[in-house]
Amino acid sequence: MFTVSQTSRAWFIDRARQAREERLVQKERERAAIGIQAHVRSFLCRSRLQREIRREIDEFFKVDGSGSSKRSALCVFKIARKLLFLFRIKEDNERFEKLCCCILSSMDAENDPKVWYVSLALSKDLTLLWIKQIKDILRYCCELLGQLKPEILQDSKLITLYLTMLVTFTDTSTWKILRVKDIVNPWPGETSALSVQRHFNCSLFPSVAPCDCCTIFRQSDSAIPHPHHVCACSCDSSQHSDP
């Protein structure tokens, strides 16, 4: 009788242990299933969002290519942000090419500051975003230039396009908007050409770091002032001394 009781107790404990292990395994399976479902849903949502954005970009360039009317600089800026948000060189190289053509076309417009893409550089609300965007665009231009072969006809056309982008946006003397007399200058005390060129070049070439007076660009480029940096602005030179 005593032996039967011990056997029954051992069997009961073993059954309880097995049931506990099965519950743990089931919980792990449920947790793994939830994780897999979350990753799949996330992938599907991202894929759907990317398809919708690319479709919107294609529609934009399709309408823009018809030549019915010039798009405003703000419209080009917004569509460029969407393209750069998901940009992949292999998938979006044609879209990027169309974007560069659209930007250069806007820069060639006559007597229409709202169309000039560079006009956003003179907007206090969009200056930093515009500089970040044009830096990204020029960086991709440089990356694509490294992959092109000038002996191929199609590549030679793209090389011309991307080089034109680099020249256009690193030489502010070609910007028509800086020759407009009644332009609103977001940096009082300076000429528009000087202020835009100085701030843009300081941001484009971070080795020439902005000084303490250039606080507007410390928000977009957290560069540490170089001890031998010579500021182009009219601030006190004592601000540039070594700490």
UniProtKB/TrEMBL annotation:
Catalytic activity: S-ubiquitinyl-[E2 ubiquitin-conjugating enzyme]-L-cysteine + [acceptor protein]-L-lysine = [E2 ubiquitin-conjugating enzyme]-L-cysteine + N(6)-ubiquitinyl-[acceptor protein]-L-lysine
GO biological process: protein polyubiquitination; ubiquitin-dependent protein catabolic process
EC number, as in UniProt: 2.3.2.26
Single GO MF annotation: ligase activity
InterPro entries for this protein: E3A/B/C-like (IPR044611), IQ_motif_EF-hand-BS (IPR000048)
Pfam families per record: IQ
Alphabetically ordered keywords of this record: Ligase, Transferase
Superkingdom as given in the UniProt entry: Eukaryota
Pathway the protein acts in: Protein modification; protein ubiquitination
Protein name per Swiss-Prot or TrEMBL: HECT-type E3 ubiquitin transferase
